[in-house]
Amino acid sequence: MHLYDVRDKTVVVVDILRATSCMVTAFAHGVESITPIASLEECRNMKTRGYVISGERDGKKVEGFDKGNSPFEYVGDQVRGLKIAFTTTNGTLAIEKSKDAKEIVIGSFLNLTSVAKHLLLGENNALIVCAGWKGRVNLEDTLFAGALVDKLKDYLGPDCDAPLAARYLYNLAKEDMISFLNTSSHVLRLNKLNIHEDIKFCVAMDQFKVLPKLKNGTLVVN
Amino acid sequence: MHLYDVRDKTVVVVDILRATSCMVTAFAHGVESITPIASLEECRNMKTRGYVISGERDGKKVEGFDKGNSPFEYVGDQVRGLKIAFTTTNGTLAIEKSKDAKEIVIGSFLNLTSVAKHLLLGENNALIVCAGWKGRVNLEDTLFAGALVDKLKDYLGPDCDAPLAARYLYNLAKEDMISFLNTSSHVLRLNKLNIHEDIKFCVAMDQFKVLPKLKNGTLVVN
């Protein structure tokens, strides 16, 4: 991140497994707002202010929290109208690191086309911030970046070879993304937590048309 | 780099186009030592101390320097025994950033198998530092990383998905690396400087068996 000047850019934050997939799913089911919070304690304190508190550390739900990091916790009528405070290992940190951006939007395979359209209609340069895993590269976020670059390739040019590399990887993976991801470090890590259904859910393309945007520190869709 | 603790690691520094390819070529032709220097001025001063001064900025040879950054300047009998002071846009900076490593070696396609053998025979963890272009990702260094990971895959495990991604890219590119690289930002940049022959030279595998190592701030092979 320190290599990029984000001030003139629309930053697309992506944490496919599973923070940004959860966020997109939640908004598609009528959640009112999601406030990303970096620390566990700060998030816990939001409970007294009328927020549903959601949190994950190292892939596991946080004790005492209302919700964890599975997209299936953010579907159905019961989430409609909720204000959620959300803290995760990588996703909320990526949002925090992007805070000086001109605009921050939330990306996932679930709302890929909505993100692409937004970037095409806007005038800003774009930076895709892959949350990764504890500061390291992961495959699933890179594949999302590749899918997005693939959609935009006739309109936007790359600033280095990273978008190109991501697009090659996406084209290699796209026919069977789940098998491809089965070799990745993060999926191997999450396999231990039995979340195959979550992974399947998170790599489905264009399930929802919402585009969460950060406004005054809180994600909203309107 | 700031995400990795290099103190317990053998760092392989790579700048395929063209710093580390030049270094490997130079040692294969009998150069005695190469001292990487970060700044242009400092490098210029080495001239008075009996060094041949080599330098490149933005892909171009530096005015007043003895040699530039083309591997063809480092072949033949006339380089035997030379002590070279070398400064480049990205390669020498990558060495500087790796300075706390347990060991630093120089990698290129030209000495790929020598690097792989060294890592297999050693006991250190390994980090491949792709010099990139001004701090950004480039394809050619990533492909080298992928080729090295491919050789080591049965012996060393990855710490994140970056080695895996690099290996996928290498396997996609290996049948025709030159065509693959023709789409990369750096090759497009260098094309303007008419260095097609350099690129062809730099992607040839295992031409030399030398393994330059940093000792007291200077690269040597013995």
Would you give an account of this structure?
The structure is a homodimer of 222-residue chains. With 222 residues, chain A is α/β, with parallel strands linked by helices. Chain A has one domain (9-210): ComB-like (putative 2-phosphosulfolactate phosphatase, Alpha-Beta Complex), CATH 3.90.1560. Chain A is built from nine helices and nine strands. The longest helix of chain A has 14 residues, at 139-152. Chain A is globular. In chain A, helix 5 (139-152) crosses helix 6 (162-173). Chain A has a four-stranded mixed β-sheet with strand order 2-5-3-4. The first copy, chain A, has a three-stranded parallel β-sheet with strand order 6-1-7, sandwiched between helices. Chain A has a two-stranded antiparallel ribbon with strand order 8-9. In chain A, strand 8 (213-215) and strand 9 form a beta hairpin. The model of chain A has no long low-confidence stretch (mean pLDDT 93). Chain A binds chain B through residues 3, 132-133, 135-139, 142, 158-162, 164-165, 168-169, 172, 183-186, and chain B through 3, 132-133, 135-139, 142, 158-162, 164-165, 168-169, 172, 183-186.
